[in-house]
Design goal:
Helices cover about 45% and strands about 20% of the residues. By secondary structure, it is of the alpha+beta class. The protein has 2 domains: about 5-15 and about 95-125, no CATH class; about 15-80.
């Protein structure tokens, strides 16, 4: 007969979100503009400086725009009482469980991979307060 233990939900972890992606897109656009400006300047050093400067300016403006959009979303989440992150948004929840036998956190609500016991539903009052 397999060993069983209570499955206790410990808390949650948060993953990804739109404002984190907006920040990443802004950074990538800025890096791309720096690379393009360097290429423009190296290919035509006398005539390309204006194109290089405008490319850098466009990259900076795009970075500022995407950072502002990301910050706006963070502020909206804060006002609504939703969880949010600094550069990384945290908009959906994944449950975290703890094995009642070995007291280790596990991803599965059905099986503990550390002590190899089957987990059964625990009492929600056993969970730690968040």
């Amino acid at each position: 007969m397999a060993k069983t233990a209570k499955c206790i939900r410990v808390g949650s972890t948060y993953h990804g979100g739109l404002e984190g992606k907006l920040s990443l897109v802004g950074i990538l656009l800025f890096v791309l503009s720096v690379l393009l400006a360097t290429v423009f300047f190296l290919m035509t050093p006398y005539e390309g400086w204006l194109v290089a400067l405008m490319t850098l300016f466009n990259g900076l403006i795009a970075w500022l725009l995407f950072q502002a959009l990301a910050e706006h979303l963070r502020l909206q989440k804060k006002i609504a009482g939703l969880p949010y992150g600094g550069r990384i948004s945290r908009n959906f929840e994944s449950p975290v469980y703890r094995c009642g036998e070995c007291d280790r956190e596990t991803d599965s609500p059905y099986y503990c991979y550390y002590c190899r016991c089957d987990l059964v539903d625990g009492d929600p009052s056993d969970a730690e307060p968040e």
